[in-house]
Amino acid sequence: MKPWLCLVFFTSAFLIWHTEAEFFTSIGQMTDLIYAEKDLVQSLKEYIRAEETKLSQIKSWAEKMDVLTSKSTSDPEGYLAHPVNAYKLVKRLNTDWLELENLVLQDTTNGKELQGRHCDAFSFCCEGFITNLTIQRQFFPTEEDETGAAKALMRLQDTYKLDPETLSRGNLPGKCTVVSSALKGCLSTKTTKRLMLIFSLLLGTKYRSSLTVSDCFGMGKTAYNDGDYYHTVLWMEQALKQHDEGEDTTVSKVEILDYLSYAVFQFGDLHRAMELTRRLISLDSTHERAGSNLRYFEKLLEKEREKSSNKTVATTEPVVQSGAYERPLDYLPERDIYEALCRGEGVKMTPRRQKRLFCRYHDGNRNPHLLIAPFKEEDEWDSPHIVRYYDVMSDEEIEKIKQLAKPKLARATVRDPKTGVLTVASYRVSKSSWLEEDDDPVVAKVNQRMQQITGLTVKTAELLQVANYGMGGQYEPHFDFSRKDEPDAFKRLGTGNRVATFLNYMSDVEAGGATVFPDFGAAIWPKK
Question: How far is the first Cα of the chain from the last one, in angstroms, to the nearest whole number?
C-alpha cells in the first residue's frame, strides 16, 4: 500500500507541475472536461439564441421595410402626398435607422454596442451594410427636419380641423374637401356627391399610413419642447389611448403620463393633472418627479379651496372643462378666416356673382402669336379680377423646369420689413429657386408666353421663381407688392413696385394647396 501512496504523491506532484498538458494521464480529471464541455455547449446555445433573437429583429425590420419601399418607390410623389408617410419617412431616417444600426452592432455576449463601429469575426458580413448606411447618412434628415415634419403635421391638423385619432389612423379628407367649392354650381347635387365620394375613397387607401404609439409620443415631445402644451396634450392623449388599446411599443405609459400630466397642469386643470399623476405613481411608485409634483398639486388645490371658502370666484374667470382645451390665439389676426378658406369654407362667391363669371378664348388682345392658337381663359373671381388659363405649359416643359430648379432649391425667404434683410420665417414653409433665360430655352419660352397672355413685358419682370412646397408647406397671408411703409423693397430691381402675379401650377395635389385671399374671401384651387 505504501508504494501506491508514494506513487500517488509523486504523480500528484508531477500533475501540479504540468496541469495544462497532462489531462490524458488521469481519467478523474478528464471527467471534469466532460462537464466543462457541457457548460460550453450551454453557453453556445445561449449565444445562438441571443444572435437568433437579434437576427429575427433585424429580419423583421428588413421584411417590413422591403414591403414599404416597394410601395414608396413605385410612386414617390404620390406616396409622399400623404403627410403621415412624409413624417414617418423623416422620422425613420433620422431616428429608426440609427436604432437599427445600434442593434446590428450590438454585442450579444454583454448587450453593449461594439466599440469602433466594427463587426466582430462572427458577423463580418455586416460591414457592407454599416459602410453603406454611413455613406447614406450624410444625406439623411436631421433632428431639425424631424421637428419640422412634426410641426407640419400639427399645422395640417389645425388648418383642416383633424383630430389626432383621424390623423393617427391616416384617415385624411380626400379631394372632396378641396374641390367641393369648385364642383358646386357646375354639376348637379347628385353628381357632385358621387364624385366627392369617389375622391374620398381614392385618397388614403393606396398609400394610407398610420402613426404608432412611438410616433404620437414623438409628436407630443416635439410640441412640449416648443412650449406648445395644446398639441402636447392632444398627442400624448392619443399615444396613451393607443397604448391602452394594447398596441405593442417600447414607449412606457409612465413616460407618456409624465409629459401629459404636466402639460394638463399648464392649462390650469389641476384636478386632471393630479388624476394623471396618481395613475403614473400607481405604475411607478419610485418616480421622484411625479411624487414631488403630486405634493405640489395638492398644496395648490388646498390653497384654491381656502380662497373659494373666503370669497366668491369672479364670473369672468375662465372655467376649464376637464380634457377640453382651447387652441391658444397666435400672432395672425386673420388666422380663422385664412384656415377656413384653406378648407373651402367661407368662400364669398354668391350665385348672383357667379353668373358674371365666364369662359372664353384669349388671344392677348390680338397678339399675333395667339391668333391661331388662343388660350382657354376662365374667370375665377369677379372683383378683383382673377383668371385661370389652361394648358399654358406642356408636361415636358414642366418636367424640364422641375429638373432645372431642383438642384437650386433652397429654403424660401421673406424680407424683414424693419431691416430689409432676407430671412427664413415660420410663416413661409417651402423651398424655391430662381431660373434665368440663359439656364435653358424652356425658361425663355415660358416667360414669353406669360408676356403674350398678359400684355406685360418681361423686361421689367423678375426671374422665374419655382416654389416647391413640402408636407404642411404654406405661405401665410402676405402682400406680394411693397406697401407704403416699405417703399424700397424692390429698389434693387430698378423696375418699381409689383403690379401683377402670374402663377403656374406644375402639379396636381390630393388635398389642400389652395391660394386664398382672406380680404375678400376667395379660394383658388390648383390645377396642373
Answer: 109
For the chain, what are the domain ranges? 23-111+126-138, 143-171+209-309, 347-524
3-state SS assignment for residue 410: strand
Rg (C-alpha) for the chain, rounded Å, is 34
Question: What's the one-letter identity of residue 512?
Answer: G
Tell me the C-alpha distance between 357 and 352, whole Å: 10
Please write down the HEC assignment for all residues of 64-99: HHHHHHHHHHHCHHHHHCCHHHHHHHHHHHHHHHHH
CA 468 to each of CA 81, 93, 411, 454: distance values in angstroms, whole numbers, following the listed order: 13, 21, 10, 24
Mean pLDDT of 72-96: 89
pLDDT at 202: 38
- Identity of the residue numbered 94: N
In the chain, helix, strand, coil percent, each to 5?
Answer: 55, 10, 35
Beta bridge partners of 425: 428
CB 403: neighbour CB atoms within 10 A?
11
Rounded to 10 degrees, the C-alpha dihedral 486/490/491/493 comes to 180
CA distance 433 to 407: 9
- pLDDT tens-digit readout, 397-428: 999 999 999 999 888 777 776 676 777 777 67
Instruction: Please name the CATH architecture into which domain 347-524 falls.
Output: Sandwich (2.60)
Q: What CATH number does the domain located at 143-171+209-309 have?
A: 1.25.40.10
Cell of 370: 395667339
pTM attached to this predicted model:
0.75
CB 176, CB 196: distance < 8 Å: yes
Q: Are 274 and 301 in contact (CB under 8 A)?
A: yes
Burial class (CB in 10 A: 0-12, 13-18, 19+), 387: middle
Give residue-wise pLDDT tens across range 476-510: 888 888 777 766 666 666 777 888 899 999 988 87
For residue 58, the Cα-to-chain-centroid distance in whole angstroms is: 25
Strand partners, 432: 410, 467
pLDDT at 322 over 50: no
d(CA 79, CA 86): 8
pLDDT level of residue 466 (50, 70, 90 thresholds): very high
Distance CA 398, CA 403 (A): 9
pLDDT digits (tens, 9 = 90+) for 113-154: 554 444 454 445 577 888 888 888 888 888 988 998 999 899
Task: Say if residues 197 and 221 touch (Cβ distance below 8 Å).
Answer: no
